[in-house]
Design a protein that fits this description.
Shape: globular
Radius of gyration: 19 Å
Number of strands: 0
Mean pLDDT: 83
Largest sheet: none
Low-confidence stretches: none
Length: about 230
């Protein structure tokens, strides 16, 4: 039952990750890197948007320091996501190392979308969900690289596919719940930080703001529930 439930929950991500992985594989091939690179980058890095950025870093011969700093900047939002996952992943051994490694925006949205139903092993569900999502990404990356070796076309704009997936996940989460408080907080806080800090520097302040607001809101709701 756990495997079946995890697979079913991962289906929306499968559609997005295979397409996005194909885009990554095509982009990687356009820079002269073959299918082996696509497979192992997806297996050992598995960082979505950072893999897109990594293609240009590889092609441009970026230093280790430059790559490390860029990775921190692109994936800094996961530090704030991670704070909210401490409780959910608290007792997930022996799966915890892989859950931390395979943590992505889309996996985060599914893990936080609701409680696991009765009869489903919670820790195994988290593990399988993460594994399925990575498998989709690997399949897409390898397929895209093979396609890129057969078909030559302009790859401009492929990077926008990551943004498209974020919008799809946001829409799906909005439609699946009646409580839109978290979504509204995220949109309003991000928009405010975009106006204040600009498009190049708004992400980290926005994530800090969203995290603080959600923590305060969560504590307020707990206290309100206790009073009742």
């Amino acid at each position: 039952m756990t495997i079946k439930y995890a697979f079913k929950q991962s289906l929306p991500i499968m559609a997005g990750y295979i397409v996005l992985g194909i885009g990554f594989g095509i982009l990687l091939k356009s820079k002269g890197y073959g299918v082996i690179w696509a497979f192992f980058m997806s297996l050992f890095i598995f960082a979505g948007s950072m893999q897109y950025v990594g293609v240009n870093l590889l092609a441009g011969g970026a230093s280790i320091i430059t790559t490390a700093l860029m990775t921190i900047m692109v994936n800094a939002r996961h530090l704030f996501y991670g704070v909210s996952m401490l409780e959910r992943y608290k007792d997930t051994k022996p799966y915890k190392p892989y859950l931390i490694f395979g943590f992505t925006d889309e996996t985060y949205s599914l893990v936080c979308s609701g409680d696991v139903p009765a009869g489903v092993d919670r820790n195994k569900y988290f593990f399988l969900l993460t594994m399925f999502n990575q498998c989709y990404w690997i399949i897409g990356g390898v397929a895209g690289n093979l396609i890129g070796s057969l078909i030559t076309f302009n790859t401009a704009g492929i990077e926008f596919s990551m943004t498209s997936l974020f919008l799809v996940v946001f829409t799906e989460q909005w439609m699946s719940t009646k409580d839109h408080t978290s979504a509204i907080i995220g949109v309003v806080t991000s928009a405010a930080c975009l106006l204040i800090f600009g498009s190049d520097n708004f992400l980290i302040p926005a994530m800090i703001g969203i995290t603080i607001i959600l923590i305060v809101l969560g504590e307020w709701r707990k206290r309100k529930g206790r009073k009742k």
